[in-house]
């Protein structure tokens, strides 16, 4: 019985392993239950009523309360990590994210990604990979989709540079491309139960909102959250992976924290239906106190009864003043963690 | 597109904003699932069998295992925070708390509070507000109620003092006012499965019980717990809110911790049905090791088969010796965190 | 009303309290829900598809996704602590562990243990107790069983030594004694969705696998996990119980962490069906970064369609190099935390 070292461990894909048109079927489908919802509310100060109460959801025309839209995003995203970002140097951006169907308890999600662009960097050591990822339920329906691009290292520096393909991506999803859940109806919306009296009509383009509250980040919490989405990238968990002994926090943790904090001032921005773009401006680490502010970027009517669309910038910061974003050099200020651009649905 | 600062953030109510007779419908209803139960057991060393096992609950005459009575309390309480205690200087007391109906998976809870008393302090800068809060389920049934009074700051120091109204509150809920869940029957109680052999008849008024075990408090745990109840008061989460960088722990976290620790010696004090009073004697902070002791204050028979009522003092402490409570000056000792007075149901 | 000190607190059993043939019915039955599954995935980087997806489980011939086999073990184990190991000096070993029936949401588990061996130590101050523990569901079916032996202190040093009984225990469970869940069928196994392409046939006896990833241990996480299994032994929770202020981490936390890490290289070792033995080689403490490696010890065919059995050594380490285990003195290296020997089921 001789001992042999196995080569079965996944070492991830490198830049030269991606070709435009490849479809990656990501592993480990996930059935969701009330447990995911309870944990989401335990990890983030999430209080949007549609995701908290079956009764509120039914009054809004849905069969019951769906899984938080960002929880659905995290589940779909988490599955892509072993195939897309294990050897990523940086998560560069998001675009064309759309939520197409609510996710309910008992649904099983899987993910798949199509490589839609590649561009080798001029240094020859890495390149940018663009993927369009879809989350698919047990009925083979797409529940959400988004484009993400990452910088990935090459393993074989001699591998030839692929033909550059940069996908044409919309800077902003046109409102007519947003998908409103079937049956959604805010005409009988209960503002008292939702927590704030502000209608869609009360928000003005250009208006900025300081969400006031702050949450100090703990190692145990971001790790519990990140694992819940089965995102097991070692940088988030292994304190020995970085020279200073800190763990790099999953960017999605900051997205969910900021969105939850935005309840205070945007309690009626109930459903996220579009992700126009987003930048993880600076890394987040344990001990930081995260705050958030928003800016109304646009507004649009929809065909659903009582439902308006609002386009919001959501900024998470630790140390940067509210309503500050970039320095004179055009770069994000050191205290800015997240700059997200999304569409939400509100009662008119 | 000019930028405007929003005034939509909730800054909470101040003393002058409360008038006797006001009814506050608190926001964000909540549907509970198995997730809340699992988290409650993960956050506290809770082992009372009725809240752990559907089989044990059925043998006790209930349709299935209800949500822990304190978890129901926390959910109801959490909703009141934005309307009652956002600007509170201190949580002064509880009275007349009664659990009226068990809460089961799938139930949706909301809360409402009636202002039943106001009294401006002599300094003119703050006042005491008394509210009677009710937790209501999706069938508009009241599942629990309690009175709570808090000291709240005035914003407008010029606002006239309201007429003082101090509600007449019972020091102890009479046993005939306690509501025993329909069908509850301990005549076939399984003491082995419950964990201890001690009957209601084995406890004597005046008996004191040291619950022995201790739990050291972690920041991540109290924040997860507090958020689970959608209590998002910033003092619990924001390490920059206090000069020493510590977070003030939600008093309910200490209540649940002490109650769970009391299993060791009071495993058969299954259901909490009455809250006579309670004081958060000193603040709790991360790093403290919480212990608990109890004293039997009273006993009473009930009309339900095999069910006795027991009135207990539950004390949580960190540093104070068991069975010590107040100093010669009549003030709580520095190591005492909680002094709670409640009614529970036990097998006779 | 005179105050009396109660003697109702459980002080646990001492060595002289165990006699061969005793059957201990452990307290606090537990109904499991989706909450336990979600928490298990939040606490460990668990990604085996059978325990994550109802769809994957159905394709494998099961009615739905069962509770993770180790979660079932922890629930069964946790109940034994107050009766078996409250006064234990050391957890010495496991043997003859078998999973007999999957556990599903809604099942209620209880545990019972039979004392099958006792041996007083030569120092007269302690002894070894062997118990065979069974986890039983609400239909009185045994869902799992295992033998465990612990060293327990004597309280009464004058108590006579019992007749020594050392049970004959199998070093390895013969493959024909393993119980394969009814209906399990891996003939249509989806390797893409499971996460790795490696078949049972691809593993060779003697092969070693470095699972690469590491997870740094947090106090909040191991306490949440341990409480979830209602294992409330104070050493895991009370920082004042040990001179250095650290908490002793429940050995099962390390088992689950290592098993979850082993996904990377053993994603298709889906179900654990046998526990041949295990040693908690060194204690684990907060701040350690746990890594894992495996060695293929044996392989065997089974009668179920497409299902092979694989016997694995699973080693968890913090600081010890992969594939190192014991020093020249035959003792475990200081950085080795766990040495586990188990049978799992894989697609052939």
UniProtKB/TrEMBL annotation, chains A, B, C:
Q: Name one GO molecular function term.
A: lyase activity
Q: Which Pfam families match?
A: MC_hydratase
The record ties this protein, via InterPro entries, to: HotDog_dom_sf (IPR029069), MC_hydratase (IPR048274), MCH/BMMD (IPR052342), Thiol_ester_hydratase_Rv0216 (IPR016790)
Q: Where are the transmembrane segments?
A: none
- Please give the coiled-coil regions recorded for this protein: none
Stated name of the protein: MaoC family dehydratase
Species source reads: Parasedimentitalea marina
